Amino acid sequence: MPRFLTLADVAEQLQINSPQAYALVRSGELKAIQVGGRGQWRVEETMLEQYIQERYAEASRMIEETKAKSSH
Fold first, then answer.
1. DSSP secondary structure string, 5-56?
2. In the chain, at which end, N or C, are there fewer CB atoms within 10 A of the end residue's CB?
3. Residue 64 and residue 13: Cα distance in Å, rounded?
4. So where are the chain's domains?
5. Non-local CB neighbours of 30 within 8 Å, separated by 6+ positions
6. pLDDT digit string (tens) for 7-41?
7. Parallel, antiparallel, or unpaired for β 33-35 and 4-6?
């Protein structure tokens, strides 16, 4: 796999649409760079993996919080 992914590649891997991938980049949730004369966005594969791991960690925290609240 190439080092850098297009937003279309990111969208495909996350199974979301391109505007959603763009929104993740614009919000800063997913780190990306702009390259070329037209400023095309590229996401380094390691940044995508980091984003995915952060989402897993966030999901785990939410599940634990829900369990803690329901046990009271």
1. EEHHHHHHHHT--HHHHHHHHHHTSS--EEETTTTEEEEEHHHHHHHHHHHH
2. C
3. 27
4. 4-71
5. 10, 21, 24, 43, 47, 48, 51
6. 999 999 999 999 999 999 999 999 999 999 899 99
7. unpaired
Handedness of CA 65, 20, 28, 30 (dihedral sign): positive
Written as one letter, the residue type at 14 is L
Taking only the tens place, the pLDDT of each residue in 55-65 is: 999 999 999 99
Q: Which residue has the tokens 């999901």?
A: 59
Q: What is the pTM of this model?
A: 0.86
The residues facing 43 across adjacent strands are 5
Contact (CB, 8 A) for 21 and 14: yes
